[in-house]
Design goal:
This protein is mainly alpha-helical. Helix content is about 70%, strand content about 0%. The longest helix is centred in the first third of the chain and has 29 residues, at about 40-70. The chain starts with a helix and ends in a 13-residue tail after the last helix.
Length: about 170
Amino acid sequence: LGSTFGALFSGPAASIGRWKCLMYTNLIVIIGAGLCTVQKWYCLIIGRFVYGLASGSFSVFCPKYISETAPVEVRGPAGGITQICITFGILVAFTIGTFFPAVKDQSESTQFAFLMLMFILPIGISLVNMLLLVCVFPYDTPPIIKQRGDYSKLNEFMGKLYQPYMEDGGYLVI
């Protein structure tokens, strides 16, 4: 339910920029997964809904960010790899339960430990994702930078993206 709302209503939020949307969505993952680690049933339900909002938002923002930042030559394969990774993640999520013992064979503390592990892992992945966005990918997408009118940042970004295709004068060779 949360991912449905996240996917449906994240489109208008994309106007603030893909990079900011990805950062905020990672924060939503951390909040939702953190709520799921609280040992109250209503926190688990709210946390799963919030976590679902982030999941739906990621399904909108990530492909858009990749398609707008990837060079034309690799745009198709980059989008394809993204979809393969999403499908692999779904496969892992569905099969991970087979490796844990049945619920009736576990004490309540063991069940809670598995639950904590299942939601602490996404928090760690989101923190790594945020670190990569800040350190390695600190730019928004070219259409958003152009829309803001920041042409110096756009030229810097495009220069890094298409450096092998630049002439001596700093202009793209098409």
